[in-house]
Amino acid sequence: MIDHLRERSLGVDPVCRVLELSPSTYFARKKRPKSARRLRDEQLMPLIEEIHVESGATYGARRVTRALRRKGIDVARCTVERLMRELGIKGVIRGRRRRTTVPEPSAPRPPDLVDRNFTASRPDQLWVADMTYVRTWSGWWRSSWTCTHG
Fold it and tell me: What does the DSSP assignment read for 92-148?
């Protein structure tokens, strides 16, 4: 970040002052050699991007990991997940979201008689109803239940 701001003609000292960071810390970090993890990451990143592009930008971390292993590169999936996040790439999630409720715009809406306050001072004062849709192997199952609250 400091390097990015330096390119915009901002000095190291003012930026470090705002970040409450010592300028000597910044310069010491710049001199330090890259870690083994960072070096490995820099080797893997182009390979991950290449596999992702070859897949038509559809592969996620799991498939990218498998493709790397097929190429003889032993890598953990969590490493691929981290690097894909850093690169800003994602896989495609297959399937459409099911919309279980389609509201009718012209249908009358019941009034909110409790003003979203669901506490009751006595039994049988408030009633709650719910409709739940559950996906099963044979299709959608709809459950509805009603209970008293209070």
Answer: PPPSPPP------TTSPPPP-TTTT----SSTTSEEEEEEEEEEETTEEEEEEEEEE
pLDDT, residue 35, reads: 92
Average pLDDT per 10 consecutive residues for the chain, totaling 150 residues: 70 80 83 92 96 94 96 96 95 78 80 80 78 78 60
Give the three-class secondary structure for 60: coil
β-strands 126-136, 139-149 pairing: antiparallel
Q: Which two tokens stand for residue 38?
A: 């960072």
- Tell which residue, 48, 92, 93, has the closest CA to residue 68: 48
Q: Which pLDDT score, from 0 to 100, does residue 103 have? A: 77
**Angle of CA points 30, 4, 80, to nearest 5°:** 75
